[in-house]
Prior knowledge:
four-stranded antiparallel sheet, 5 helices, 31% helix, 26% strand, elongated, alpha+beta, three-stranded antiparallel sheet, single chain, Alpha-Beta Plaits
Amino acid sequence: MTINRGRMTHRYDGELVVFLIGMTINRWWRVDQWWPVFAAMPGMLAELSRDPGSGLLGYRLTFGAGGPLVVQYWNSHEKLYDYASARDAQHRPAWTRFNQRARKRPGVVGIWHETYQVARAESIYAGAPTMGLAKATEVVPVQPRGDRAAARLAAGEVAVAVGEPATRT
């Protein structure tokens, strides 16, 4: 893992959609019910990652007290919705299987999501590997005029860094 030296931010110009999708495991001992739901996500993420036109910029999988959470960055809400409803993609069959399972064993596992259209975004990464929005877009050094969060989030500026981009990992 490469740790970036100094303070970094992201650079991105365009529509930005942040999509959070999580799974709540309400009965941990019912592995037979929640494991298939959990196991469906890697295939969908791989499918999206292989297709540069999918709209998915990047993602990060995290785990919390209730279960897993995937933070996804998209370049278009239309592309996100298109993928969700595409009959030839992995999402629709996975969603159908989840609903069938949930009807038979209600309350064992839950799915939730939140979608945010982001007008402006500010980020800072200090002494950290490239991650989050910077990994999904482009990581660049913070410049003196972007030294403060308020300056980085100033009207009309998604990211204020300029210059040679750092290598993405």
